[in-house]
Amino acid sequence: MARESVKILKKKLMNHNQPKSVFLCLIFTDMAMQKCGQPFHVHVGTKEFMNVLVSLLHNKDLMKEIHNKVLGLIKSWGERFEKDHDIMPLFSDVYKAL
To answer: Domain residues of the chain, as ranges?
Structure first.
């Protein structure tokens, strides 16, 4: 179930034509990361999902609020999952790279 949920979130985040929907999806993803367990975290921490977040940062057409939210999430998750680097390395790796 976690894999399917993250797949849907990724699809919504890639819909750059609706910036408000992208922003709300980021908020929902953050809430899910706070409430859900490791299976969900592992799927969010994949290269595919993290690449979608980084692509949002590189899209100059999106609102500044979206860029700030993405940066905040990457920072938050990078710090939160640093101790789990062996299981979910991309959270801290992407945070350090940015």
So the answer is: 2-97
Q: How confident is the model at residue 88 (pLDDT cuts 50, 70, 90)?
A: confident
Q: Are 47 and 90 in contact (CB under 8 A)?
A: yes
pLDDT given for residue 85 in this prediction: 87
Q: In degrees, to the nearest 5, what angle opens at C-alpha 47 toward C-alphas 61 and 83?
A: 110
User: Structure pTM?
Assistant: 0.91
Domain 2-97, CATH:
1.25.40.90
